[in-house]
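Lay summary. Proteins are chains of building blocks that fold into shapes, and those shapes determine what they do. In this project we predict the shape from the chain. Here is one chain we studied, written as its sequence of building blocks.
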Amino acid sequence: MANRRKQVPENVPGEFFVDSTCIDCDTCRQLAPEVFAEAAEYSFVERQPATAEERRAALRALIACPTASIGAAAGAAREAVSDFPLQLEDEVYYCGFNSEKSFGGNSYFVRHPEGNWLIDAPRYVDHLARAFERWGGVRYIFLTHRDDVADAARYAGRFGSTRIIHRYELSSQPDAERVLDGRDAIELAPGFLAIPTPGHTRGHCALLYRDYFLFTGDHLWWSRARRQLTASRSVCWYSWPEQQASIELLRRYTFDWVLPGHGQRVKLSETGVAQALPISA
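And here is the predicted shape, written in a compact code that computers can read:
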């Protein structure tokens, strides 16, 4: 629970605040950019919500925050818990409830008639588990890489899920049910294509769903400042040249959505940016 006595000095006065436990994961700035902004090493409340819609977005950010670093009026968070999983488009949802174990990484849920998918994992909370159960459980858990597994094992245990991860990332889930090898793309199920994208880590993989949704893990994301797709050498743990090559590899594929573990998600067709433009790295 956020502590107002520990709030960061940049907060503007009002209901919402951020305290000094913030880890600067960007989750709140993705969900409520009108309210939260970035300081040197943490987020802060730049402007209190001015509309009901902005307040709802700020409450979603409070719920998703992996370190409970956002505070508001007592009991206010309950108003927005039911928003999660948050629908992005069609059968694809953002889970919320980001986990500190994955440094606040995003995770996603795909409702599918042949079995539902979880892409990377949120923290384990009963609210999400019950929602997944109402929708038929979780048949597959696709893990892009070792950093963002969070509570995948616990969700797999509850639902009997098949966890899918590359062999080079297996140390994070040594008992995973399906292990990928090599660097060739592989169809995991109709419409689901695993694409090895080494660079950030050696066995990093992206998941392309029906040539429309690309789940990119920590490989690629949307830069709000540059207004283009980007990656970062400073958070590349394995090989920057290989990450650049993996970015080039993605030009072979068609997708509208970029859904990262870290960084801003974006629907390219709504940004006015043609996908053929160069990707900044």
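What the prediction tells us: The mean pLDDT is 95.
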